[in-house]
Amino acid sequence: MCLxxxxxxxxxxxxxxxVLVLEAGQIGDAVASQINEPAKTYYDxxxxxxxxxxxxxxxxxxxxxxxxxxxxxxxxxxxxxxGTDGPIHxxxxxFTFPIPSDCKFVSINNTGSFIANSAIRxxxxxxxxxxxxxIDSIYTPHILTGATVTGIVWDxxxxxxxxxxxxxxxxxxxxxxxxxSSTSPKQTVNVNKEVILSAGTIGxxxxxxxxxxxxKSVLQDAGVDVKVDLxxxxxxxxxxxxxxxxxxxxxxxxxxxxxxxxxxxxSQSPExxxxxxxxxxxxxxxxxxxxxxxxxxxxxxxxxxxxxxxxLQAYKTSGYKGTGSGDQVDDxxxxxxxxxxxxxxxxxxxxxxxxxxxxxxxxxxxxxxxxQAAIQHPLSMGRMYxxxxxxxxxxxxxxxYLQNNVDLQILRxxxxxxxxxxxxxxxxxxxxxSGRTNPPAKESTSDDDWDSFILSSSSxxxxxxxxxxxxxxxxxxxxxxxxxxxxxxANVRVMDASVFPMEMSTHLGAPTYGVGEIGVGLVRATYEGxxxxxxxxxxxxxxxxxxxxxxxxxxDSNSAMAVTVGGMKVDLMIPVGLxxxxxxxx
Length: 586
Hints:
CATH architecture: 3-Layer(bba) Sandwich
Number of helices: 14
Cofactor: FAD
Largest sheet: 7 strands, antiparallel
Active site: 463, 507
Helix content: 10-25%
Number of domains: 1
Domain Glucose-methanol-choline oxidoreductase C-terminal: 378-516
CATH superfamily: FAD/NAD(P)-binding domain
Region (Disordered): 531-557
Domain Glucose-methanol-choline oxidoreductase N-terminal: 142-242
């Protein structure tokens, strides 16, 4: 998600505010077809198959290359949140397959099955994303593409004159350095007001660390001068892990992938090329472990609760790099992990409205139906860290997938449910399937068989989060939940998926636009005295264009989610990331 374009566009509405966007990627015009035609997400993707955690390095960020799901997280449903003239369009593909009459199109509590809204412009069946919605048609800030942020420049003097409620000892950013390539000289942009990092879960934490903010031992090992010893930077990294099963179809079934291979007139039409996978379901544990096996569900929850202390101890002693060497993880970071862990096991696991597994169906392969299961609230949390003071050297990413065995048990149950949906004669889906191809069908598949398959074949759902968590300092937070200001820095904020303390049951696209609009309200409250947020809907279901961004029916931007973490309302922290970039209020 290119959250920076959302915020930069909104801040540019004030003509007295000068905004510069530094984007590591290019403008994207050379690959416009691959961006704009939704189906090319599957058939001609910009994301290399060799990258396990790809990022959108283009103007528009990951919103230019993602699957376009617009799924609402678990918050109180408000019909007014569906706007009518916002920048980002929501709708459905121009081509689809028969849909059961009882299928839901808008989920009230985000559990159960439904056809998800997608970020599609129905006027021309193209992708609606942050560049087309916020930049091309509304307000244009200054934008410099091909510019990778290499670090923040600090003023060593007191920052007591800052408008933030900051300590006099806090650092003040006076500039941002960038380079056009790893061999190009660094250049500096001066900063009069503040720096807002929106480089994503990987990039924002990396920029902070190479700029001297992060765990002291990590920075010292990488040859970085320590400015602020902030132990939570890069820690408690999380992601949605997904496992895919493939089934061959019967001769009577035609998938979208089959149509695409024909290269027929239909397969080249804008309507067909707008078809993307959008059928999804979120299931609580009570659905994965039905009532007749309630004892196994309670046993699972008890196992998760009883293993917490050993999990926390292992996390602490494994150190900031997860290797067991170097400094142990600070107690505040571990305490934050405990707060998140108990929220999951004691509240979310028992809630009938909290999805623990997402199920998806994909029809974009020829003669094949792919079913997927993805864990939504992992107990396993890892870390990311730098090994060099050079931002062009990739950081180490360790999400600690399935380190907690309870995560594996939940994901296994989701995969087994998928296989039953595909093969049971009682399931309507089974009539369209001739057999399982991956993993190959066998007479009997044991839990050990499923575990081996999950461990060897699972991959990311492209939803990394939480490396710069918005939590109190006492819980190892990196940014202040009320302002998104980085602790120890007077005028630096982070606004992207990295600030979310824990994973949510959702795709991160729609909530990201929400946090962008909320973030605008935080900035305006600082400089303009506007404490009501932007007051503008991000989404629009009209087909008349990109919208003027001037209104919409609104909705309560402060509506609370079902749980809090560390006393913080997590509804305010719902973002995702993009390529290495920052944007600067100058």
